[in-house]
Design goal:
The protein is α/β, with parallel strands linked by helices. Helix content is 23%, strand content 18%. Helix 3 links the parallel strand 3 and strand 4. The longest helix is centred in the middle third of the chain and has 13 residues. The N terminus is likely disordered. Bound molecules: 2-acetamido-2-deoxy-beta-D-glucopyranose (NAG). This is Hexosyltransferase.
């Protein structure tokens, strides 16, 4: 199974701004944040009409998955708004939010609902006890949060009726219709589409402890190292 990288041209058109992890520095302890109610978005006449109770499981709906937590909720709210704002069929979008199993789900649900009263969404608690012991400290402390790894478990977290899902990080803003991205052809042998990077300097991606352990660092020996960014994935 391979990852395809045909997304690059689409990403150029969509111009997704990634506000990298600089946000980590600005996160302050928050009890509850308040957001304005977004204006209502309407489907254009050409949109399929999907019966409301089934949208979260409909093959015709566009499914978006994101993680939501208290620290990054500002980014998530902006991302949701940008998805709806540029979509010609915003009512055919179903959101699947991965939250920490220890998070206050009712608070997160209330926060999202008060800004987006007509949003179709469901929260999925992610029990990170199985992931937490596998995380080694990295160069970016924001990556140490187990919820970051919930995206790897999407297939088991989301109901099996969902055939395709777009995973989005909460630090991006869409500036064009997400349906274009969702329509990407994956072909027969690919499990997901993501942008690939082959000229990154991996030295700074790992800690000195990693590089000093040959058992780990030899992974890169005689190889052309590439990685794909998991911030935007079509799965
Ligand atoms: C969750 O948040 C709600 C609303 O702020 C609050 O009333 C409730 O006590 C919280 N629950 C927990 C378990 O913290």
């Amino acid at each position: 199974m391979k990852v395809i990288c045909a997304m690059a041209h689409l990403l150029h058109r969509l111009v997704i701004f990634t506000i990298l992890m600089t946000m980590a520095a600005t996160v302050t302890p928050i009890t509850q944040q308040h957001f304005k109610e977004a204006s209502t978005f309407y489907n254009s006449p050409a949109c399929l009409s999907i019966s409301e109770p089934y949208i979260l499981c409909s093959h015709q709906a566009l499914h978006v998955a994101m993680t939501v937590d208290k620290a990054y909720i500002r980014g998530s709210m902006a991302a949701i708004l940008s998805v709806l704002q540029h979509s010609s069929c915003p009512h055919n979008i179903a959101f699947h939010f991965l939250i920490s199993a220890t998070a206050n789900a009712s608070l997160l649900r209330a926060t999202i609902s008060s800004s987006f009263p007509y949003l179709y969404f469901r929260l999925y608690p992610f029990d990170h006890s199985s992931v937490a012991p596998l995380i080694s400290t990295s160069i970016r402390s924001a990556l140490d949060c187990p919820l970051n790894y919930a995206r790897i478990y999407l297939a088991s977290l989301l109901p099996s009726c969902i055939r395709r899902v777009l995973y989005l990080d909460s630090d991006l803003i869409l500036v064009d219709d997400i349906a274009e991205l969702a329509a990407i052809q994956l072909g027969d042998n690919s499990v997901l589409a993501a942008t690939e990077y082959c000229s990154a300097n991996f030295v700074s991606y790992f800690t000195p402890t990693f590089w000093s352990n040959p058992c780990l660092s030899l992974t890169f020996a005689n190889r052309k190292a590439c990685y794909f960014n998991t911030g935007v994935m079509v799965i």
